């Protein structure tokens, strides 16, 4: 069983509780949240509410999630496979897909699709996360590498832990940056006011380093390539919000989203690894997804 709690701020008052929580919790679908409300697993200041309840500033929301223990099913779904051999699969993840099963997402994840595609995945992370060496947020698209066997998993996990994997992202951020390239070194920890958010903090935090360079500039937005030297939760989203240039569409970290993007425009563009079987250095690149491309095309037309 997992238990979460948060206090509503002034900027969110008047929002329907199911809509508010779906925005706050990436891995919980709105329909699943509604089921939790109906079953009394979500309370407001210790009182049950219905799904149409509009939250008020100061409301204390408590959520209880009972883990669903069951075998993960193989489900036929389209996978955008960039590379595959006997040891690894590299996919270009869609932005609306959760990586592994979680409350509210048991049969529509990358893992479900992988189980339908291959006979074997590494078992190191257990039944719910077979083959998963690293993850991307639900609304982040791009490269995800999956291990087909335990030997490959251990070697890839070692590379990620030692920070020898080179990870490059494309992000469309709000505003125009003061420098063509730069280094953001700001420690990240859990936001003390909301456990589902991260924040730049002096204490109770870990070192976080992001290097960026401008790819393309627009009137009020900038496309940047970001190389992350550390792998903190929401690192790029937090760092650029801290600079005052949140990722477009990332409402959690302050995006005004004037472009009306349906998700945060963040894409894992390039991965460089040492192949866990052959020892060969390999570089993978993933094209931007169509929604990201469409926003860039519109910005280019409006230049």
TrEMBL record:
**Recorded catalytic activity of this chain's protein:** a uridine in RNA = a pseudouridine in RNA
Q: Broadest EC class?
A: isomerase
Q: Name one GO molecular function term.
A: rRNA pseudouridine synthase activity
GO BP term, pick one: enzyme-directed rRNA pseudouridine synthesis
EC number(s) on record?
Answer: 5.4.99.-
Q: Which Pfam families match?
A: PseudoU_synth_2, S4
* Active site positions: 137
Matching InterPro entries? PsdUridine_synth_cat_dom_sf (IPR020103), PsdUridine_synth_RluA-like_CS (IPR006224), PsdUridine_synth_RluC/D (IPR006225), PsdUridine_synth_RsuA/RluA (IPR006145), RluA_PseudoU_synthase (IPR050188), S4_RNA-bd (IPR002942), S4_RNA-bd_sf (IPR036986)
Keywords on record:
Isomerase, RNA-binding
Q: Where is the RNA-binding S4 domain?
A: 15-76
Q: Which family does it belong to?
A: Belongs to the pseudouridine synthase RluA family.
Q: Which NCBIfam families match?
A: rluA_subfam
Q: What does this protein do?
A: Responsible for synthesis of pseudouridine from uracil.
> Which named protein is this?
Pseudouridine synthase
């Amino acid at each position: 069983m997992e238990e979460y709690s948060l206090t509503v701020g002034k900027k969110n008052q008047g929002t329907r509780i199911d809509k508010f929580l779906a925005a706050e919790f990436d891995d919980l679908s709105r329909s699943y949240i509604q089921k939790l409300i109906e079953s009394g697993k979500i309370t407001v200041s210790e009182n049950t509410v219905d799904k149409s309840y509009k939250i008020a500033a100061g409301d204390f929301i408590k959520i209880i999630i009972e883990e669903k223990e069951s075998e993960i099913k193989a489900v036929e779904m389209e996978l955008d496979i960039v590379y595959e051999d006997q040891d690894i699969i590299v996919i270009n993840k869609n932005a609306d897909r959760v990586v592994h099963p979680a409350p509210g997402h048991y049969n529509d994840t990358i893992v479900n699709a992988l189980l339908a595609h291959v006979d074997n995945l590494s078992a190191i992370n257990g039944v719910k996360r077979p083959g998963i060496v690293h993850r991307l947020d639900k609304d982040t698209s791009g490269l995800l590498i999956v291990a087909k066997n335990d030997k490959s998993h251990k070697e890839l996990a070692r590379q990620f832990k030692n920070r020898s994997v080179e990870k490059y992202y494309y992000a469309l951020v709000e505003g125009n940056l003061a420098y063509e390239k730069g280094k953001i070194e700001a420690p990240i920890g859990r936001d003390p006011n909301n456990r589902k958010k991260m924040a730049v903090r002096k204490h109770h935090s870990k070192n976080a380093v992001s290097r960026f360079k401008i790819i393309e500039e627009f009137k009020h937005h900038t496309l940047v390539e970001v190389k992350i030297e550390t792998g903190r939760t929401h690192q790029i989203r937090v760092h650029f919000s801290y600079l005052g240039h949140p990722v477009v569409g990332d409402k959690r970290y302050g995006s005004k989203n004037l472009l009306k993007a349906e998700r945060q425009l963040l894409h894992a563009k390039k991965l460089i690894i040492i192949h866990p079987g052959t020892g060969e250095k390999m570089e993978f690149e993933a094209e931007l997804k169509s929604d990201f491309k469409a926003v860039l095309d519109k910005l280019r037309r409006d230049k």
